[in-house]
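pasting for the record
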Amino acid sequence: MQVERKKECSNFLYVKKEYYIWAYPLGGMFFIGRCRAENLFSALFCIYRLCIFTKSMKKKKIIVAVTGASGSIYAKLLLDNLQKLADQVEKVGVVMSDNAKEVWRFELENTDYEQYSFDFYQKMDFNAPFASGSAKFDTMIIIPCSMGTLGRIAHGISNDLISRAADVILKERRKLIAVVRDTPFSLIHINNMKTVTEAGGIICPANPSFYSIPKSIEEVAQTVVSRVIDLAGLEQDSYRWNEENS
């Protein structure tokens, strides 16, 4: 605290002004400011908003799990988008089931999953960092998510890296997004979705929207992936209902 005083004179009473000095760490530096006592509340509010902003700027560590459900195009588009959003992502760990690779080859007629620069892990590799909560991966996206995978997660069965990672994310109170891809749903499916939701997960069905007037199957699938990216807390340019879009 710094105190400034003015000398007494014939026209002014004794005046005392108090200033508060504040400092906020960001990126290895300190931002330092000064405010008057009467503006302290406004300064504290600005510091609070700065805290929220810088927290949102923190790069994310993301797990992408691909299961054997139909919908490999969703996984491909998500990985493509994550490459473009590299400035917001610290690390991406990918795990694919054997069926996921087979479905990818059948539906997309390629093996492009081998071309990504992300860290890939085998489905039974429990030495993967995100098999433990200490690795601090903050988001897991299962895309597409088969009903078998969802059922194992709902009942706490960690018999492979995908189900173990999901169990870790839920127990650590972090973000799990399951892009389920099946229809119609049985009561067993619905109850499993309910259980995962109650445990803190997010069920995001692979239901595309059409108000953006998509022109191709990729653009249709992207409407789902864009919602997933939003749920993961990443910033992107995408179609927003009744908003200006770039």
